[in-house]
């Protein structure tokens, strides 16, 4: 068979790109987002500012749970974890900014909703953190549950699902409240501290993290109710299947590595594994990567550099007291599940 047919050409593209240590997006078919990313040489990611999930470190480098997912994406696309730019954007601004092409993906605690999928035109990768909406109230109110907040003034962040859920909650309980809608995060927190509002409501991930930023954390109580389901997932603009699948399988690689017990520490030992699925996953057997147009070492490099899902969780969220809960592997009673790597 001549080496000039499509198969031969694809193999040569694969070999060249693998030598460069990069994913081989063009080998199957690159979408517009990937084209743009490769031309730019970096992935643009919209993030928030919640400790544990995303925070700029003292060296100016972003750190956190979602940041590590962005680093994993950078490895999937470029073979290294530093071809990614993180930019803070308010919950109000970030979906329009994504739609306008200012970001390639949001890793900012965006909740998957049917309106965002159908009416607003976004696609979502796998849920990476199962969350729920909570309320943080001033202790001096003396309340222990959300239902006791009848007549309270509650701060909500504009553009969030929380803005809508809190109205549903009070409507369903027959109680009243006065919403104070605030876009800016510092102003949102300041409103609670100054007593302008009695309580604020947001994803529990956000409130637990932001509690650390309040001057007197002990003055506030996180009420026990979770008012909603907030499955937080990477968000991209709808209509770019190739980019969506790269996001999907990057997250699945983190989850699958944890399921197999493959960590940043022991991944090299797994290169000796006799398990054909692990050989395909780590690129010891290159057939799968070649078939889909990925650098055979993409998953290996992700795990080696960033760790598996559990390691990321341990590194950033366990120190804040987060237990795994729903964010545990399906095989350990949680909801995290990766489809087969075959
Ligand atoms: N999950 C909600 C809320 C998203 C949200 O507001 N996330 C937090 C981070 S978990 C945030 O960005 N807060 C503003 C900030 O961190 O500056 C939604 O999708 O509407």
From TrEMBL:
Domain of life: Bacteria
UniProt keyword Signal present: yes
Keyword rRNA-binding: no
Span of domain Solute-binding protein family 3/N-terminal: 42-285
GO biological process: amino acid transport
SMART domains: PBPb
Family annotation (InterPro entries): Bact_solute-bind_prot3 (IPR051455), Solute-binding_3/MltF_N (IPR001638)
Signal peptide: 1-30
Keywords: Signal, Transport
Entries under PANTHER family matching the protein: AMINO ACID ABC TRANSPORTER PERMEASE, AMINO-ACID ABC TRANSPORTER-BINDING PROTEIN YHDW-RELATED
Family listed: Belongs to the bacterial solute-binding protein 3 family.
Protein name per UniProt: Amino acid ABC transporter substrate-binding protein
Gene source species: Paenirhodobacter populi
